[in-house]
Amino acid sequence: MSKEISTRGAFHYAHLIVLSCIVITCLPCALVLSCAGIFFTPVSAYFSVARSAFTLYFSILNVAMMLTLPVAGRVLAKSDARVVLSASVVLCGLGLVGMSMCRELWQFYPCGAVLGVGVAPLIYLAVPALVNAWCVRRVGFFVGLCMAFTGIGGVIFNPLGTALINSDAEGWRTAYLVFAAITLVGTLPFTLLVVRSRPEDMGLLPYGAEGEAAAGGEPTVTESRGAMATDAMRTPAFVALLAFCGVITLNQTIYQFLPSYASSIGGDVAAASGVVASAAMAGQAIGKVLLGVINDRSARLGTAFGILSGVLGVLVMWLFPGALALLLVGSFLFGVVYAMTTVETPLLVRTVFGSRDYTNIYSRVSMVGSLMSAVAAVFWGLVVDSAGGFPLMFALGIACMAACLALANFALAHRSAA
Q1: pLDDT tens digits, 399-417
Q2: Whether residues 275 and 402 fall in one domain
């Protein structure tokens, strides 16, 4: 099939790839990760166990993700994305079905492992790998847009899940089953029928390259540019990105403690603790798109924008705790730096090491973030319960963000993308 030429603004098959990525993040990723919290209290109460005993499954999920990522990265780089991503969706569906059928507490733990193996390629690899393969223009915008739907999916499905949970004593089983059905029925048509690993599979040029060809020039071929994983992992920039991924993930987990911070203030602020969390989620969704757009111009500028937004947000929340309006503004701004975890990290990897062996490199970087997710909440819980309390949490958060800015700039200064 001959390579087709399209004009700016015209339809390109890459747009269907982006739509598929949106479905992946909005359905399985949101249902497994963004909606997990609504089950913590009702399931724990049903089995008469401490919440920590039930939520251990989520730590197991994160460890399973960490162990899966390097393998998934190699497989996705060499195999048909339709097979890899569809198998991942099926595992997510089976894991959710398994959660609905658990009769003993320990049974949730292997189900969590299945969910971790399934969701790892979907949340960490699918969007950046497919967008990098299919686009040479507006990569940042498309990555940010797709990743924003992890939060949007949470906004859509958390109320549905809560209503199902409250429907009867075992409503949580119904909610897990409904989530499984939505995951499988809503996502598999896209991963099986729409997704293609690369434009060459359909005789097409990547989105943005066809304009160069139409102008009589040589189309950009991104897959030939950049470092191989074996070479990248020997560089100081790779170590810096590993540290960036871990620290930015540690910092994002502060979000989980913002409602508790609002409750500790008392008065009208305490009554609006849920609104504070929603403001952060809004900041995350909008921040992902903004970060993508800014990164299309400059990765340094994107990093600086995210970090400065987060620092300003923390300072506002810390210094003006009694002013609800300012607290909501601060929470919104912190949501922007929260968004960096799944947007800035993959875009930095692409900028520093190119697209040649991107999936293998990014899967290894993501391992650190997944591992940090398993321990970060415990760390911040200990900080909040210490003598330093929430002020210490905010101070350490600012230190984390400053470190991330330095690490990102170091990696960009030592970039090896050709």
Answers
A1: 999 999 999 999 999 887 5
A2: yes
